[in-house]
Amino acid sequence: MPPPPPPPSRRNNNSSSNNAVSTTNSDGSRGAYATAKEENIYIPSFISKRPFYAGEGGDEGTTDYLEHQRKKQQDDDDRANANKWYDRGKKLGPAATKYRKGACENCGAMTHKTKECLSRPRAKGARWTGRDIQADEVVQDVRLGWDAKRDRWNGYDPKEYRRVVERYNQVEELRNQLTTGGGGDGAKKGGGGNDDADDDNDDGRNAAGEKYAEESDMGRHQSTATRQLRLREDTAKYLLNLDLESAKYDPKTRTMVDAGAVAADADRAAQLFAEEGFLRASGDAEQFERAQRYAWEKQEREGDTSQHLQANPTAGEYFRKKEREEAARQREAQRRALEEKYGLDGAGAGKNKPMPDALRDMLVTESEAFHEYDEAGLIKGAPRAVARSKYAEDVYLHNHTSVWGSWWSDFRWGYACCHSFIKKSYCTGEEGKRAWEQAERQRTGVGLIEEGPGGEEREEQQQQVNDGTTVEEAEPLKPAAAATAKKRTAEEMMGGVTEADMEEYRKKKAAADDPMAKFLGRDELVR
């Protein structure tokens, strides 16, 4: 509330000795009289200084340095907005007669889109039919302050709480009627209106009130430990019969040992315990447990969650019935096969021919064959079963006539048909073998050194191989000469290695990648 105006005697007396002037706030209200030059030095700086978010100072005529600390007066519009709230369900005037562009395609209102429409979805909306176009809703711009936005009761109508109060009043009236009605009947039976009956009615009302207080949260005088105790009438199962020779209670399974006894002299405690849980094992409870177990097992085995008992009970029941019928059909087929093979005995003997006694004696067969087992537990002398590999066998790919791994050379596996080391290569047959042999001779340098009297013979043999003739068809070397060439005499062994032997060794052991190896043993000059 703004302060009152100054008295008339001081309105025009601005040159008084007190040096006080009338202050005017930036919002138009009259501030209190404050000293124009002096400030209260006892006010802390964090109160007297204007913060940066409060903006700059007011008008030039304003001398109130604590203007930012004073509560500003709200305008009439602000007060109106404070009490303003949304008018739910209010319509704007009459509805349109035809569909307007940009309106909702379902109801025809302009204030919302089709996705935001709360009306019932039509088979054909107002855009195509042009009928039953709804009026536009009132769209309000309610500007709330900081406190109003965070008020949990903002917009709540207190009149709605009257229903709750009325409902509680009705319950209280009904309770009072029941209490007074029982007391009235007792009074009539006792002779009508005596003091004892009134006292009993008062006691009944007090007892009902205390019971109602215990049921509600108002009875805080009773401790929590006392309220959680079991009632005295609720006797424990193991106290029903204290006979040491009677039924025993198993605390682990929470069952009586002889709970299934149905004899005339069965234990009373066991009978009571069995009667208590009879509802859980009667009716469709067993079928429900089976259906639940079937859904769980189906999910664990196959990961199928479509047969959930609560989400899709029809599918679970259908597949469970189908499996039961299939199992019954298989059992019946197996029984018929056994009947046809061995016949029937007893009640069903009239349908099929009974089994003869001679065949009946042969059902249990005996054997006296002698078998000797080895250390591995297999029968000695029995043909060994070839262990099948988990990999594909005898599968020839890419025109090969042998499998990969049928040939071994230089610590590498390959194909025996074409001497190829590449597993996914195409077969080249004999051409591939010859190409591989030539590559090996070139790599190792075999055939580059030709020396001695046998050089011409080796050239002829190589020519015959190139022409297609085998080495066996050509003239073989004399075995005696070959053996003599490799054998060393005792003098050579005792005399050591000579220079000629070293020269011959160097010629034979020349490296394949030596470019001068082919010139060894030749007297020609390179031009």
UniProtKB/TrEMBL annotation:
<feature type="compositionally biased region" description="Gly residues">
    <location>
        <begin position="180"/>
        <end position="194"/>
    </location>
</feature>
<dbReference type="GO" id="GO:0030628">
    <property type="term" value="F:pre-mRNA 3'-splice site binding"/>
</dbReference>
<comment type="similarity">
    <text>Belongs to the SLU7 family.</text>
</comment>
<feature type="compositionally biased region" description="Basic and acidic residues">
    <location>
        <begin position="211"/>
        <end position="220"/>
    </location>
</feature>
<keyword id="KW-0508">mRNA splicing</keyword>
<feature type="region of interest" description="Disordered">
    <location>
        <begin position="175"/>
        <end position="229"/>
    </location>
</feature>
<dbReference type="GO" id="GO:0000398">
    <property type="term" value="P:mRNA splicing, via spliceosome"/>
</dbReference>
<keyword id="KW-0507">mRNA processing</keyword>
<dbReference type="InterPro" id="IPR039974">
    <property type="entry name" value="Splicing_factor_SLU7"/>
</dbReference>
<feature type="region of interest" description="Disordered">
    <location>
        <begin position="1"/>
        <end position="37"/>
    </location>
</feature>
<feature type="compositionally biased region" description="Basic and acidic residues">
    <location>
        <begin position="65"/>
        <end position="89"/>
    </location>
</feature>
<feature type="region of interest" description="Disordered">
    <location>
        <begin position="52"/>
        <end position="89"/>
    </location>
</feature>
<feature type="domain" description="Pre-mRNA-splicing factor SLU7">
    <location>
        <begin position="144"/>
        <end position="406"/>
    </location>
</feature>
<feature type="region of interest" description="Disordered">
    <location>
        <begin position="297"/>
        <end position="356"/>
    </location>
</feature>
<keyword id="KW-0539">Nucleus</keyword>
<feature type="compositionally biased region" description="Basic and acidic residues">
    <location>
        <begin position="318"/>
        <end position="343"/>
    </location>
</feature>
<feature type="compositionally biased region" description="Low complexity">
    <location>
        <begin position="10"/>
        <end position="19"/>
    </location>
</feature>
<dbReference type="GO" id="GO:0005681">
    <property type="term" value="C:spliceosomal complex"/>
</dbReference>
<comment type="subunit">
    <text>Associated with the spliceosome.</text>
</comment>
<protein>
    <recommendedName>
        <fullName>Pre-mRNA-splicing factor SLU7</fullName>
    </recommendedName>
</protein>
<feature type="region of interest" description="Disordered">
    <location>
        <begin position="448"/>
        <end position="499"/>
    </location>
</feature>
<dbReference type="InterPro" id="IPR021715">
    <property type="entry name" value="Slu7_dom"/>
</dbReference>
<keyword id="KW-0747">Spliceosome</keyword>
<comment type="function">
    <text>Involved in pre-mRNA splicing.</text>
</comment>
<dbReference type="Pfam" id="PF11708">
    <property type="entry name" value="Slu7"/>
</dbReference>
